[in-house]
Amino acid sequence: MTPVTASLPTPTAPPIAVEYPDSDGQPMAENTLQFEWITLIKENLDWLFAADPQVFVAGDLLWYPVEGNPKIRQAPDALVVFGRPKGYRGSYRQWQEDHLPPQVVFEILSPGNRPGEMSRKLLFYQQYGVEEYYLYDPDSNSLEGWIRQEGILDWIETVQDWVSPRLGIRFDPSADPLVIYRPDGESFVSYGERSRQAEQERQRAEQESQRAEQESQRAEQESQRAEQESQRAEQERQRAEQESQRADRLAAKLRELGLDPEVL
Description:
Layout: H1 32-48, E1 55-58, E2 63-64, E3 78-82, E4 92-93, E5 104-108, H2 115-127, E6 132-137, E7 142-149, E8 152-155, E9 170-172, E10 179-181, H3 191-256
Parallel strand pairs: 2-4, 5-6
Antiparallel strand pairs: 1-3, 3-5, 6-7, 7-8, 9-10
């Protein structure tokens, strides 16, 4: 008789958790000029869409478009995602973001960037759904742009006065350095410049408040003077009336005595 042996289930290894680092170990910028431009664009895009809770803006944030493959990634100098809420993210994991890729990305060139690296970035952005891609070299003041047409990122032939379909901002590379205009016509400015403008506005408002207060005080003084003049005029009227009444009484007394006050 053949013995019966119980078969045991084959143990399975637990699934290996995929890690998506929040940093690629690379610096945000290689020099102060590149850093200034990255922060200028990112901060102004923040201000531009501050009132829209469904526009996410980030700078130097790792973007993972494919779940399970952390090697497929890029960290645009600035990115904008329409349709995703604002808020903290260690990285942008597209499958956790309603599968929405960044629609607009910016890159700021530095001397360390190589043509091959930038070509790979362009291919990455084309493959993973970017609609608008802008590349600016602050050292040469040159701007290039690409816009998605018929499924590919097509090079923009003329970027002078180009208006971003998604952002509504206008580029003027004829200025040196590049000037970017908001939809309201105001130019992008740095945080320091915006703080200086805000301080000037505060000072102007304070001066206007002081002038208004001075005008109010002068008006109050004029009102008080007018009131005093009115009171003096009333007092004069009352004195004149009293004098008239005294004269009438005197005339009546003289007539009682048989005297004509008119001939005295």
